[in-house]
Design goal:
The protein is mainly α. The protein has two helices and no strands.
């Protein structure tokens, strides 16, 4: 599936801490964000069933 580059604004401290969190666990920050979006959409779809 094609990828889309996006720009986000987040608190500096939050970004730094989450980047460290992902790095320690070998996670890719952008993929984590993508997974969070997918989960939120799934949860919302389940509510509307």
């Amino acid at each position: 599936m094609p990828k889309k580059n996006i720009t986000l604004s987040v608190e500096l401290n939050t970004h730094e801490n989450y980047t460290k969190f992902c790095k320690k666990r070998g996670l890719v920050l952008s993929r984590q964000f993508e997974l969070m979006m997918e989960k939120q959409m799934e949860e919302e779809a389940e509510k509307n069933e």
